[in-house]
Design a protein that fits this description.
Layout lengths: L13 H31 L5 H13 L11 H4 L9 H13 L10 H8 L15 H15 L7 H20 L2 H30 L1 H8 L1
């Protein structure tokens, strides 16, 4: 007597089993969240229905057979969110650059050269919060706040960009050849003064008794 055909349950691969277990765990967590939201709904009268749709989607995904080969990246898709740099921040630096004196301007247009010459510039040998830099910061903030009125850029953000620009100019100034030569000269002079003081101090300590005797 022929044996009737039987439907064989497809065996699950280890990766599929792990994926289904993760989906079921997520389903239980979202059901618990739904119960909490429902309880809140009865208290404050807020109707939230988005979780039901999400749970139904997970139910449908969990019901797929192993032969469907569910991509293993499904579970991590929601966690990997793109990170984009704020275009407003780049715009702020652009406005600061245009507002300030440009030491690297290359132009034969006399009007452009003269306009650049009268632009403000940082006093890189003075602290950021000291005059005249302090007054320049106020000018820049007033200028930028008008440019970015109605955007997400706060005064604190604008000031941070201004300080970054100051630090950049200060570093560039220190890297100039003439600045390095001046710093090296000062360093050598200071070193010689220290050596002279050390030798005189040692000589005094060596003959201190004789000096005190003669001085009475």
């Amino acid at each position: 007597m022929p044996t009737p055909n039987r439907r064989l349950t497809p065996s699950l691969a280890s990766t599929d089993v792990q994926l289904l277990q993760a989906l079921n765990a997520m389903k239980e967590e979202m059901k618990a969240m739904k119960d909490k939201i429902t309880l809140m709904d009865t208290r404050i009268g807020v109707v939230i229905t988005g979780n039901s749709t999400a749970i139904n989607s997970i139910d449908a995904l969990s019901a797929l057979p192993a032969s469907a080969h569910v991509p293993t990246s499904v579970a991590s898709t929601s966690a990997a969110l793109p990170i984009t740099e704020s275009s407003d921040t780049n715009a702020v630096f652009g406005y600061i650059h245009g507002y300030m004196w440009n030491p690297k301007l290359k132009s034969r247009d006399q009007a452009e050269i003269q306009a650049n010459a009268i632009k403000p510039k940082w006093a890189v040998d003075v602290r950021f919060d000291r005059s005249p830099n302090r007054e320049l910061v106020k000018q820049l903030l007033y200028y930028l706040e008008k440019k970015f009125a109605g955007t997400d850029m706060r005064t604190r953000d604008l000031r941070k960009c201004i300080y970054t620009n100051f630090c950049s100019k200060h570093r560039q100034q220190r890297e100039l050849p003439e600045t390095r030569r001046a710093l090296n000269t000062n360093s050598r002079r200071s070193g010689r003064e220290t050596d002279n003081y050390t030798r005189r101090r040692l000589a005094y300590d060596a003959y201190k008794a004789d000096i005190d005797l003669k001085m009475g």
